[in-house]
Design a protein that fits this description.
- The chain is mainly α.
- The chain is built from four helices and no strands.
- It has one domain.
- The longest helix has 30 residues.
- The relative contact order is 0.16.
């Protein structure tokens, strides 16, 4: 599937904003862990587990940003709830239709 120049540029422009927004959500989750009534060791290990899992999340990092991975990255971002279809409102109808077929 070809990716239009407009969609590719929108993706590259929006990705840092999407990731920043998602990481802000993660930081709030980390704060909740740290502010809980658990023992310090329980907080530490809970936070360490979250950080370990989150650092591989597309909302935190995406490697190999290329046009050939455009749809894979968008699908991953949707499935990890980093973005919603509403975040793609400016993308082409073709891109939105492809994503709707794949992720429902």
């Amino acid at each position: 599937m070809d990716v239009s120049k407009k969609d590719w540029n929108l993706f590259r422009e929006n990705l840092p904003e999407w990731q920043e927004r998602y990481m802000e959500k993660l930081v709030e989750e980390y704060k909740a862990i740290l502010n809980s009534d658990q023992n310090a060791s329980d907080k530490y290990w809970a936070l360490e587990g979250c950080l370990k899992a989150d650092k591989r999340n597309p909302g935190v990092v995406i490697t190999d940003i290329s046009r050939s991975n455009f749809y894979d990255h968008l699908i991953s971002l949707i499935r990890y709830k980093v973005i919603t279809m509403e975040d793609l409102k400016d993308f082409s109808d073709e891109t939105k239709e492809v994503l709707k077929r794949i992720v429902g």
